[in-house]
Amino acid sequence: MKLKALFATVPLLAATTAMAFAEQPATVGPNGEAPTPAASLTLSDADIETIKSGGHTAALVWHELYDWSNAVAQGAKDEFARLGIEVVAETDAGFDTARQKADVETVMARNPSIIVSLPIDPPTAKSVYGVARDAGVELVFIDNAVQGFTHGEDYTTVVSADLFQIGNKAAVALAEAIGGKGKVGYMFHDADFPVTNQRDGAFKWTIENEYPEIEIVIESGMTDPANAEDIASAMLSRNPDLDGIYTPWAEPALGVLSVLRQQSNDRTKVVTIDLNEPAALDMLKGGNIAAIVADEAYQIGVTAARAAAAGLLDKAVEPFLVVDALSVGSDNVVDGWMQSMNRQPPESVKAAAQ
Predict the structure, then answer these.
(1) 94 plus 80 within the same structural domain
(2) What residue ranges carry the coiled-coil annotation (predicted)?
(3) How many domains does the chain have?
(4) d(Cα 123, Cα 275) in Å, to the nearest integer?
(5) How far is CA 124 from the centre of its chain?
(6) How far is CA 271 from CA 238, 341, 348, in A?
(7) pTM to 2 decimals?
C-alpha cells in the first residue's frame, strides 16, 4: 500500500485511534453489511451456458499489482475463462486515484460488460466509476465500496475476506509464539481504511479479551510502511523487553525485522498479514516471524468474476461476500501458499521448507 507518510507512536491509553471493543467485533462490509460466505454464490449449468453465449467481456482495473492482487487477478481470469468471458483489459494504478480514474476511462473504450476493481479512495470514487455505471457496466468491487453507490443498482457486490478472522488468527499465532504471556507491541494502520482497521481491531480485541497474561504495552500508528523501521525503533527503545510485535501487513513487518536484526534481537516474535517471500524465509529459518495470516486471495478473484456473471443474469447477489483466512506457519507454508494464492510458493521458500 502507498499512503501518505505520517505516523504517531503512543503509549497504552484508554482512548486510542485503534479500535477497542467491549464485545467481540464482527466483520462488516463497507456500509455495515453482514458478511455472506463466498462459497454460497453458485451458478447452475444453465446459467453458465447462458453466459457463454452472451459474448461478454471484462476489464480488471487494479489499485496496484503485487503478490496478493496478482492472485486475485488470476482467480478472476480463470473464472472468466471458465464462463467464456474474455478479459479485454487489465490496468495497474500504482495506488494513484487520478491514474485509476484515467484507467477506467481508458478501458471503457473497449466497451467491457464487466469491470472488477478495488477502489483506492471510496469517498471520491463516484467520479472514477460513474462513467462505467452510467454505461450499464456490471461493477464488482474488491474490499471497498464506492460512497454514493447503491448495492444492486450501481454495483453488484463487494468481495473481501473475513476480517475479524484474520486479526483473530494473528493474535492467536502471536500468543502461542510467546507462550501465552508477556508484553507485546501493537503497530496499527492509522488511516480510515476499513479492511485494515477491522483486522487490527480484531487482533487487539483478541489479545485484550482472551489472553489475560499478555499486555499490549505500546501502540504505534502507521500510515506509511516506509516509516516502519522508525516506529519499531521507537517501540523497542521504550520497551526493549517486548516479547512480540503485531504489524498490519507484510511490508511494515520487513521494516520491523530490519530493526530486530540490527539490534541482534532474535527473541521478539512478529506476526503479520499477507504472504511475502522474505517474511516466509525468515519464519522458515527460525527467525523473528512466528506466523503469517493470509486470506484466500485467489478465491476472492473467482468470487468476483462469478458475482459479475450472476449480475449479468439479473440474479440477486448479497452485498458483501467473504472468503476465509488461514494461519501460515513453518509447518504448512507450502500448503498455505497454495490455499491462499492457488500456486506454489517461490522456489526459495519451497527449498527452505524442505
Answers:
(1) yes
(2) none
(3) 2
(4) 29
(5) 21
(6) 20, 19, 20
(7) 0.89
